[in-house]
Amino acid sequence: MLAYLGLGSNLGSRLSNLQAAVNFLDLRAGRVLRVSSVYETEPMYVVDQPSFLNAAAELSTDLHPERLLETVKAIEAEIGRQPRERYGPREVDIDLLVMLDCENSVVRVQSDRLTLPHPHIAERVFVLQPLSELGDIPINAAGDTAHSALNLCSKEFSIRRHEDGVLSIHSD
């Protein structure tokens, strides 16, 4: 399966936190195939906090979505994420955005812990911009893509490519 993940950080060494997330995903969750550029974005929902660095990653994985979520949460804790208010500042945030099966169909999951595709993906420029760099990724079962959703989003949201924002993949 292919998993598309959103990466974010607005506390500590933000770029290092994102790189650690990519490294741990590659080590523990599957194989990171591609990563987007890094973007600097204003916070959304809770605005009184530092700006975020955001990126997206494409992961080839054999993990079931619920198991991938558990792995992602363990990676966040290992990097140093502390429990805080919802949408508040965080050392690292790794969101499962969408997963595609071997036929490139969108995988749907609805449980107490996980909803796939991510229910808020289409309203978040900080997710759609980096995700659209990875290709015309479907973001729901209706066939909408990251590109098409990005074109419909508000242009008022501040997002810019981070000048030093390059994440590397260490797979063999």
Describe the 3D structure.
- The protein is built from four helices and eight strands.
- The longest helix is centred in the first third of the chain and has 15 residues, at 14-28.
- It has one domain: 7,8-Dihydro-6-hydroxymethylpterin-pyrophosphokinase HPPK (Alpha-Beta Plaits).
- 27% of the residues lie in helices and 23% in strands.
- It is globular, with a radius of gyration of 15 Å.
- By secondary structure, the chain is α+β, with helices and mostly antiparallel strands.
- The model has no long low-confidence stretch (mean pLDDT 89).
- Helix 1 packs across helix 2 (65-79) and helix 3 runs antiparallel to helix 4 (146-152).
- Strands 1, 2, 3, 4, 5 and 8 form a six-stranded antiparallel β-sheet that branches.
Tag the structure with descriptive keywords.
six-stranded antiparallel beta sheet; 172 residues; 4 helices; 8 strands; alpha+beta; two-stranded antiparallel sheet; Alpha-Beta Plaits
CATH topology: Alpha-Beta Plaits
Largest sheet: 6 strands, antiparallel
CATH architectural designation? 2-Layer Sandwich
Cα radius of gyration in angstroms: 15 Å
The class by helix and strand makeup works out as: alpha+beta
Distance between the termini: 19 Å
Poorly predicted runs of 5 or more residues: none
With helices defined by DSSP (H or I, 4 residues minimum), what is the helix count? Answer: 4
- The pLDDT mean sits at 89
Helix content range? 25-40%
Order of helices and strands: EHEEEHEEEHHE
Our count of domains comes out at: 1
CATH superfamily: 7,8-Dihydro-6-hydroxymethylpterin-pyrophosphokinase HPPK
Number of strands: 8
Given this structure, which CATH class is correct?
A: Alpha Beta
The shape, in one word, is globular
β-strand percent reads 15-25%
